[in-house]
Amino acid sequence: MDDWLLSLEESARQALSVPLFRYLSQGARDGTTSAEAVRSWADFRFLPHVMRDVTEVDTRTTILGTEVASPIGIAPTTLQRAVHRDGELAMARATAAAGCLMVVSSNAGTPFADIGATGVHWWLQAYLPSDRTLAEPLLARAAAAGARAVVLTVDTPVVATKYDGPGQTVWETTDPGLLRVNFDPDYADTPGAEKATDLGPHDIVWVAETSGLPVVVKGVLRPDDARRCVQAGAAAIWVCSAPTTPAGACRRVLPPSGCPTTGAASWIVPSPPLTPSHPSGRQSATRSRSTWTEVSGPGST
């Protein structure tokens, strides 16, 4: 792994409480998929075009109609305000400064309106509850605050096991006020608020109609599932190899025009600035963008 990335993880290990660092760094169950995800980056190789004019390299692209400075964005990550008091607000400012896309967790500890006020391009990540109507206020708040899409997580009807080790868990040591501030009061105690176990393609239609926003379906691994989502009206498919893992694999956002095997793709990375050594996140976000610039030129894939 890149020494810079390793240094970020080590900085976090030293600065964060043991339960918080353990939660952010571990995968589900034995962590097999998240460990493979780190190693898998070594398998990627660029096949550059030659005899192209690279006097000026331009990494700009568009993702669902939004122009961004590079095809790299920030994935939804919970507990950001437990890592740093400014949490999602600092992440949004850094992402906006880098000209990239930010995906905000529905469990965020910062009001959507404050995130939107930074000028960042952002999407909302959301789960659906058993009683779909309970999601309506959350979707409305996101749309009102300028969210440009809803990322519907579909691979977590049941939360995967995490071996949290001895001692207190992160949920026992984290102030509840740092989470889920965009939900209605007492949402968690409302009948029907548990995650839906009966998700289907019709929910893509419901989310799109309720929010008025394009829907990106997150957590898809199989081509046949991807086709079902596209047929139901998904604006994009988010291939996620580490479900329920906050610091898991990078993921590809695939436009439906190519379905899951062809077409341009963008990368959404697990929030690299999520470390106390760079609370604004700006250095890390800029490093991510500049690294992409170094290896990517016009026409490269």
Structural write-up:
- The chain is of the alpha/beta class and 301 residues long.
- It has a single domain (3-50, 61-295), classed as TIM Barrel (Alpha-Beta Barrel).
- The chain is 33% helix and 14% strand.
- It contains eleven helices and ten strands.
- It has helices at 3-15, 18-25, 32-40, 80-83, 87-98, 112-116, 136-144, 170-173, 201-211, 223-231, 282-295, and strands at 61-63, 66-68, 72-74, 101-104, 121-126, 150-153, 215-220, 236-239, 251-254, 266-269.
- The strands form two sheets. It has an eight-stranded mixed barrel with strand order 3-4-5-6-7-8-9-10, surrounded by four helices. The protein has a two-stranded antiparallel ribbon with strand order 1-2.
- The longest helix is centred in the C-terminal third of the chain and has 14 residues, at 282-295.
- The chain is globular and about 60 Å long.
- The protein starts with a helix and ends in a 6-residue tail after the last helix.
- InterPro entries: Aldolase_TIM, FMN-dep_DH, FMN_HAD.
- Residues 277-301 have a biased composition (Polar residues).
- GO terms for molecular function: (S)-2-hydroxy-acid oxidase activity.
- Residues 1-239 form the FMN hydroxy acid dehydrogenase domain.
- It holds the Pfam family FMN_dh.
